[in-house]
Amino acid sequence: MKTEGQTSGNREFLEKYIPLLDFFAEVCGPEYELVLHDVSRPEASIIAIRNGQISGRSVGSTMSDYAPTFVKLIQSGGCSEDMVAHMDRTKDNRILESHTFFIKDDRGELRGMICANHDVTDLIRLHDTLHEKIRMLNGIAGRSAIPGPEEEPAPLDDLFPAGKESNLDGLMDVLIEKAASEFSAPPGAMTPEERTRFVGVLKGRHLFSMKGAVPKVARRLGVSEATVYRYLKKS
Q: Which is nearest to 206 in space by CA: 125, 137, 139, 119?
């Protein structure tokens, strides 16, 4: 158990990272929540936060549900990474693409965390809206936009500049992880029936109108691309 002196010392150690938080908040903009956590006080870990309206938290609030798991893994030696990326969800059901950087001292002990949470909820909605608009403009409403092995996907990806952070690769990851969070088993451990339903969910969200979706889903499920196409036909 940490004493008040140790906790105060930890806060003093971490406060020097606040200007870094300000910098990234300015660079990233209002769609990114930046949070500085003191892991010695999990019940009131936040010592600085920018754009806290995204999660509704403020200074003195607690960690997100996933954070204590990361802390335990680092402290037990079960994870040696300096940074992890993951998906999270707010209490009002907004989807966050999150990155966590672990702050350690000279002895390698975990002292704090900087979390960057990108609200991608509107990006998902934009994806759905654009897809439907393109279907209408191309006169293909009512026809499946699912590409077969020999077909070209619908041109949704042409609206995003190739090689930029705004392209569809990150959006596909978000859609896949969002769908995965709705199943009890992780994709790699799903039964064939669950995989078919999983692919069906992604089909309904127009994932397969984007180039590279089939191989990306195949890797996530641990199956071949041909198997994903079979799931598509069944869904």
A: 125
The torsion angles phi and psi of 45, rounded to 5 degrees, stand at -80, -25
Judge whether 142 and 148 are in contact, CB under 8 Å. Answer: no
pLDDT, averaged in runs of 10, over the chain (235 residues): 60 94 94 94 93 93 78 73 75 80 92 92 73 66 49 41 47 77 87 94 82 90 94 90
- What residue type is assigned to position 175 of the chain? L
Please tell me the predicted confidence (pLDDT) of residue 60: 95
CB 109 within 8 A of CB 23: no
In the three-class reduction of DSSP (H, G, I as helix; E, B as strand; rest coil), residue 111 is classed as strand
Please return the burial class of 93, using the count of CB atoms within 10 Å of its CB with bins 0-12, 13-18 and 19+. Answer: exposed
Residue pair 66/88 in contact (Cβ under 8 Å)? The answer is yes
Spatial neighbors of 221 by CB under 8 A, at least 6 apart, are: 187, 188, 190, 195, 198, 227, 228
- Prediction pTM value: 0.56
Report the candidate in 69, 67, 25 with the shortest Cα–Cα distance to residue 48.
25
